[in-house]
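[Meeting: bench + compute handoff]

Bench side (C.D.) handed over the final construct sequence. Compute side (W.E.) agreed to return the predicted structure before the next meeting so the bench team could plan truncations. Sequence as handed over:
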Amino acid sequence: MSIDDILPLVSRPSRYAGNEFNIVKKEWRHAELRCALVFPDLYEIGMSHQGLQILYHLLNNHPRVLAERAYAPAPDMEKVLRDSGRSLFGLESHRPLGEFDFLGITLPYELCYTNILTILDLAGMPFRSLERDDRHPLVIGGGPGAFHPEPVAEFFDAILLGDGEEAVLVIAELLLAAKSEGAGRAEVLRRLAAVEGVYVPSFFEPRYDHSGNFSGMRGLAGQNSVRRRILADIENSGGDPPLVPLSRIVHDRLGIEIARGCTRGCRFCQAGMVYRPVRERSPARILELAEKGINESGFDELALLSLSTGDYSCISELLVGLMDRLARDRVAVSMPSMRVGTLTAEIMDQIKRVRKSGFTLAPEAGTDRLRRVINKGITEEDLLTTSRAAFDLGWKLLKFYFMFGLPTETDEDLAAIPLLAKRALQTAAQGGRRINISVATFVPKPHTPFQRARQLGIDEGFARIDYLKKEVRGKNFQLKWHDPRQSYLEGVMSRGDRRLSTLIEAAWRRGARLDAWTEHYRLDTWLAAAESVGIDLDGYLRRRDDNEPLPWNHLDCRVDPEFIEAEQRKALTGIYTPDCRVHGCQKCGLCDFKIIKPVVVKDCNLAAAPPAAEKDGAAPRDGTSGDNRFIYRIDYSRLGPARFSGHLEVIQLFYRVLRRVRLPLNFSQGFNPSPRVTFSPALPLGTESRAEYLLVELHRIPPELERLKEILNRELPAGFAVRSVTLDSGRVEQRLLTCYHIKTVEPIKPGMLDSFAGNEPLEIEVTRKGRRRRVDARLMLHGFAMLDGGQVEMQLLTEGGKAALKPMEIMAALFDLTVEQAARSRVMKMWSREA
């Protein structure tokens, strides 16, 4: 089956169409090295991942290298691929993953491990590195999970520890040379192991004692450890045009990394240890990237990304500069990772200039005592001050995040969570304010001071949730929790060893998929798999002895193990370790202060930031709305891959196109202003059209009106094409006659339409919003005729606000088509006019 045959059979087919804006499509035959960058979760998660986009552009900027993307398929797509015998593919070319030279698979979190097996299996590849040969692509991992990868280590040929910007190009050059020399797989792995930061699992052997307990890792190739690779400065990282999805994704915005690393030293936080030192970007560079990225994407929100955005040295000056330039274009700024104490009234005042993006505050623990244990460095008074400022500035909803099961936690610490939320709400001077409380089981992570701590079991987690449910009451509070059953598996995998690979495979063969998604996760599947391979899952949650070897000790994150152990001891006595950026070096052992050192911005001047260049021919926009109203009708067609975009996706697409070409749009008023644009009636998904339109309201005539068609077409994805741009009254027709040409999988034969002639009712049962109803197709069916080649012409009469049938609903009912036959039929909307 071709991709055109497959995509109509799955939900949200635009996830697999490879038709996004700013993607790179290189000629397959011209590339000497072909890479598929794979994110092992659904598209809407993977497309939100910044690291994959950076590597995608770095590799494609190399003249000899081609890089494409792939994501874990949803269950319906997996079934269609298996039923059709087709492989999972790269989005850009739709070529099978097995044809690439290497797969670069991100390791973002522990609950994606079964998805890796789905991807390998659908690529036609054996799961384990030792079972693959020169016919198969290399499988190289990287990302946060690379620092504790032992449960999946046997599935990978190599794994990169640390920053990938420099390393990925070193690896590409190495593979290019090896390919040109005809080097075999064993030689390629030997060369990869010599690259700083590259871990080749087959060169290490886990050892176990007579009781079956992990007793250490033995190097087999003269190498006993692998040291993390560090990018010394992130100033010039990134900057390529952002990939713009057609489908709605989790973080649907432009993300800009303003700093990498954090030295606050929270003792539960793995990222704070493995991403040291702090490396800040200059505010001028951030401003440049923000304007460039917004102009190249059309996003209406910018997220400032960092482990602790509020700790950025020039955050106040940066926000003023950003909002001065972006607020006129209705672009909001959000800061997803703000610490209590860094979220000042001045910062909040800047953010609300466009719209009030939400604030999530993370006290983590209910009492000051427990926050000292985890080295959080904030007090209850800090949280109350921040809450008061947010409420005073007009925010109606705050979100608090806590963990339970932290080391030394007492009943008093747990009871303090709802009490703290109630005190925070009391800081609001006005009513109508709300607080959402999110709680989750603490999961000990490798390379942290709490890496040896015990994790709560499932029943213990639910007992704490039940207590909080009784205490968190009232319409002003909402309690949400992460499922302790998922935290249980996360904890097993976080501190697991290589024996878990057999468990992962056994669970996958029993149907485990997409375990990070509550609707797909099945604990019973994992328990049955564990029993079948003889693994005690509870044993992985126990406390590790102080001298016990750990399965990740051979992976050097470059923070001194003695520092980590000292932090564990300080936690038990509640001693605070200050931030080295403020109080000087705390002797974590990472920096050499020559190449590897903190990069902290000293000059907060934004004058050096040049304004982003306007696009050629684009009309400038001041973003104001007034009494001026000029309405233009944009007629366009949707053909080929464009038919796989749903109506809401098309609306989002055009909003972003209109932003990119900088039309002087009028906006609605209110909390979330949006462009004043009216779209033609929604097309059924999969339908092509030569007769779509949108009405766009402007507050002045664009200076490049005669070139607007050309300018718009430069910005549209494949399959979309503007046919004309004309001044319009803005009136929307309510009664329409629309003509469709339909070609079914099995052509309709002459004479088959004769039995439907006449005036008797043609009632068809359909489902709308979960409810079944019967609709008389005769009231809509204005014309029905045979065309050459077995095609059918159907003319339907529709009236705004009344229930309408889709062309293929009528065809399926009249000709007894199966669901698949109906989905694979081609429908073309030829014209539509007022009836």
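W.E. noted at the follow-up: Residues 613-625 have pLDDT under 50 and may be disordered. C.D. will use this when planning the next construct.
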